[in-house]
């Protein structure tokens, strides 16, 4: 079985909020996590591109939803980071409502890649987001990022602990260690994306019967 080539992924468009996303067809996989979790780095590592998703040392700066496509109709969605302390409370609530709505209503959304620093996994908002996804029937892959920050014993222990916790979600929640720096877990990520993209072919214009 040959997988997708994620290296050819390219930017399609940005949207200020979920109401301005392109048509709800094809298959979408969303990437989400707290600001600074390593989301942009993970997207760049997956696609082998230095600046596909801008990595930033200033957390909370990416406010737009960025859409990329691997092939026509097969998208990767880079959602704005959450949990940044300096964002006003009102904006945090607005984003949470909008994230919940996206997870609930986006028909083409097949999977959620939830990125969390391996040293601080499943904080309140992470937990909430995974719950919303599961309640909407969306499969989740938790990536424990910056896995290079832990020695291999501690990394395995943390991975097992989060896998145990993930069982309480009562849905499909897989957990893998990931490092953009050391290229850990990249194959696991692309295999999971392959399986989501394999699930159902997106409608194309060819599917619309001619008059
Ligand atoms: N050690 C290590 N640092 C990382 C890794 N991935 C990201 N970082 C660092 O974490 C910070 C935030 O990364 P970024 O990808 O911009 O996070 P985002 O805010 O979630 O998009 C940056 O300083 C990155 O260099 C990783 O795999 N290992
Ligand atoms: Mg980012």
TrEMBL record:
Q: Does the keyword Metal-binding apply?
A: yes
What SUPFAM superfamilies does the entry give?
Answer: P-loop containing nucleoside triphosphate hydrolases
Q: Which InterPro entries match?
A: G_ENGB_dom, GTP-bd, GTP-bd_ribosome_bio_YsxC, P-loop_NTPase
Q: Name one GO cellular component term.
A: cytosol
Q: Which cofactor does it need?
A: Mg(2+)
Which GO BP terms sit in this record? division septum assembly
Q: Which GO terms describe its molecular function?
A: GTP binding; metal ion binding
Residue stretches making up the EngB-type G domain: 25-199
Keywords attached to this entry: Cell cycle, Cell division, GTP-binding, Magnesium, Metal-binding, Nucleotide-binding, Septation
Pfam families xrefs: MMR_HSR1
Question: Family, per the entry?
Answer: Belongs to the TRAFAC class TrmE-Era-EngA-EngB-Septin-like GTPase superfamily. EngB GTPase family.
Q: Which NCBIfam families match?
A: GTPase_YsxC
Instruction: Quote the HAMAP family the UniProt record gives.
Output: GTPase_EngB (MF_00321)
Q: What does this protein do?
A: Necessary for normal cell division and for the maintenance of normal septation.
Q: What is this protein called?
A: Probable GTP-binding protein EngB
Question: Which source organism does the UniProt entry give?
Answer: Candidatus Erwinia dacicola
Q: What is the lineage of its organism?
A: Bacteria, Pseudomonadati, Pseudomonadota, Gammaproteobacteria, Enterobacterales
């Amino acid at each position: 079985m040959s997988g997708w080539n994620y290296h050819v992924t390219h930017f399609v468009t940005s949207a200020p909020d979920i109401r301005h996303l392109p048509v709800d067809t094809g298959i979408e996989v969303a990437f989400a996590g707290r600001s600074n979790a390593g989301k942009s780095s993970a997207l760049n590592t997956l696609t082998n591109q230095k600046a596909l998703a801008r990595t930033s040392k200033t957390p909370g700066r990416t406010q737009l939803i960025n859409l990329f496509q691997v092939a026509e109709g097969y998208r990767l969605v880079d959602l704005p980071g959450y949990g940044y302390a300096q964002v006003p409370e009102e904006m945090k609530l607005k984003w949470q409502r909008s994230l919940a709505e996206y997870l609930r209503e986006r028909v083409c959304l097949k999977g959620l890649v939830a990125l969390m620093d391996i040293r601080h996994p499943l904080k309140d908002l992470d937990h909430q987001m995974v719950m919303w996804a599961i309640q909407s029937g969306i499969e989740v892959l938790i990536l424990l990022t910056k896995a290079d920050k832990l020695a291999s014993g501690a990394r395995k222990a943390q991975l097992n602990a989060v896998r145990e916790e993930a069982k309480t979600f009562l849905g499909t929640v897989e957990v893998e260690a990931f490092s953009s720096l050391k290229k850990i877990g990249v194959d696991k990520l692309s295999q999971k994306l392959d399986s989501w993209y394999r699930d159902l072919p997106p409608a194309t214009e060819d599917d619309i019967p001619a008059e």
